[in-house]
Design a protein that fits this description.
about 60% helix, mainly alpha, 4 strands, about 190 residues
Length: about 190
């Protein structure tokens, strides 16, 4: 760079002007011509879908660990079930880790700006719940072990976990539909 284009204050010419413009638009005391659009990026109608998807994300993150490991009556049917062989317990632990990870990924996506992030969050969060329902289609599977039939909760004729999966999937479907109907703002590509 030649001496005529450099000063103690920094680069001269178009580069310096661009840096100054960038600083001014990011300064809290000045507003860019688009700043009013940026502040409206999260429109009120998008709040309800985001809240619902965040609720499902939090539920997904903690539910399998609570049901399979922490709550004594339920954990006795899963991780601490003496009738389960080690390989069955391995798959239960795998499911717990997977739901925590999917829940955290879904939560991260749900907290990002934009409609696409919400739709991606809903898709990620649906995986363990669709998987739970889909597992019942395999031969020899059941939502509960026969020795726990008297302690199993049924809601509207469905096993409690299956009912919860259906409800959470309906919540995700409704939130995704509402998010899709909301006009995309500047931050919603």
């Amino acid at each position: 760079m030649s001496a005529s284009r450099w000063s103690p204050a920094g680069p001269a010419g178009p580069v310096r002007e661009a840096l100054i413009r960038t600083h001014r638009t990011r300064s809290p005391h000045t507003r860019s011509p688009r700043s009013h659009l940026d502040s409206q990026a999260e429109r009120p109608p998008m709040r309800l879908p985001r809240l619902l998807i965040t609720f499902v994300a939090a539920t997904t993150t903690v539910s399998a660990v609570l049901a399979d490991l922490v709550i004594p009556d339920l954990a006795a049917q899963h991780a601490f079930n003496p009738g389960w062989p080690p390989h069955a317990k391995f798959h239960d632990a795998q499911y717990m880790v997977m739901t925590v990870l999917l829940g955290l990924i879904g939560l991260t996506l749900a907290l990002r700006q934009g409609r696409n992030a919400l739709l991606h969050a809903a898709a990620v969060l649906s995986v363990p719940w669709v998987g739970m329902i889909g597992a019942l289609l395999f031969p020899g599977t059941a939502a509960y072990d026969p020795e726990f039939a008297d302690r199993t909760v049924f809601v509207l004729g469905l096993h409690g976990q299956v009912f919860m999966a259906v409800v959470l999937l309906l919540v995700l479907l409704g939130a995704a539909a509402a998010a899709r109907r909301t006009p995309a703002g500047p931050a919603s590509p």
